[in-house]
Amino acid sequence: MLFAHARTEAMLTLRNGEQILLTVIIPLALLVALSLMPVIPMPEPRVGSATARIFALAIISSAFTGQAIALGFDRRYGVLKRLSASALPRWLLVAGRVCGALVVVAIQIALLAVTALILGWKLPLSGLPWMVLLIILGTLTFGALGVLLGGALRAEIVLALANIIWFVLLMVGGVALSVPVGFVHLLPSAALAQALETSVVHGTAPGAGPVAVLVAWGVVAGALATRTTRLT
Q1: Where does the sequence pass through the membrane (predicted)?
Q2: Contact 159, 175 (CB under 8 A)
Q3: The whole model's pTM is what?
Q4: For residue range 68-105, what is the model confidence (pLDDT) as tens digits?
């Protein structure tokens, strides 16, 4: 049941043209731009730093923005209400969406990694296990934030807010550009980008600070989502 539900969620996302634009085409274009355009400030090694940041953006796009919008419209059209009346338990409904998001993220990361390798990225093998763990942790954290947003507001509001938040995190949330503002490092986007850069570029374990920020945001968002998420 879990496999079938996760496969359905992943396929629905991959068949959506708008989601493909958000989760694949835009991150690929930004990866190429950040890697090749010297006018955009980027730490050295340039391709490695760009790869880490775009990995973070890909996770945010799928786990947060995509999940929030999909959940909002599923509630609007009564999909969740119908599924909750079926044999699927509620925990499996949530687990299926999370697993579906992980599948989409895995496909994104694979495509981005191949592109980065072509652009000259040298993956330190010592950082590979940490990168995988951070991808999973980032997906869970931003998935919880996506459920929090998509499960409480009207679909139209979710659509607008999710895209606005995505753009803000990209520009001033420590993803595409390093913003020298004190509170930015407390955002989950900056924490994920920083932690991924440590493993993807330097091949070392991420610091305790970024991991703690991701865990804290995920736990708080998950706890709030269980109280505020509505089926309709």
Answers
A1: 20-40, 52-73, 94-121, 127-152, 164-187, 207-226
A2: no
A3: 0.90
A4: 988 888 888 888 778 777 777 767 777 787 888 888 89
